[in-house]
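dude i think i finally got it to work??
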Amino acid sequence: MSLTALSNEDAVKIQDSLRSAQKTFAAQRSESYLPRRRELERLARGLFMQKGGAPERETPHYFVVGECPWLATWYERADRIQIPIDEFDMRTVSFTYGDTFPTFSPSAADGMEYRSTVYTHDEIIGIIERYGMPQDKWDEPAFGKPAYVEAQAWSDEPALRYRKAWEAGALSY
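look at this
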């Protein structure tokens, strides 16, 4: 579920409720979070299309390649759904080496090749081979340092199918 798939009014209500009810990472997002998230999604979608990607949605479903326990601290009731990568049509999935925000942040201008870049599946494999899995290199993330490999799924399939199975209690880990 993504805030940016909602109307701005509904997304702001949810973000405000997180901010007032929780002390988690997601609750600390500023007022500029949603407009910036929407801007970054448009940018990532456009870059992916330039590489031949075929997004079916305007906003992605977000995933992480591998496990990143730190993400469970973002919400009070965090959970996960594990989906094998071969379930996805790779023409509808883009990747960033790190979260989209620091990947495209001018404050994280360290000259690394993975900055301001969206990758296809084949390309991200090469980046992972070169730099490893970010979450294997730290105990706690630092601003601007990649914390995980993010996948942006620009299709509802298989995300919604797995979500329905999870909601029905058909998945367990």
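Strands lie at 61-65, 93-97, 149-153.
im so relieved honestly
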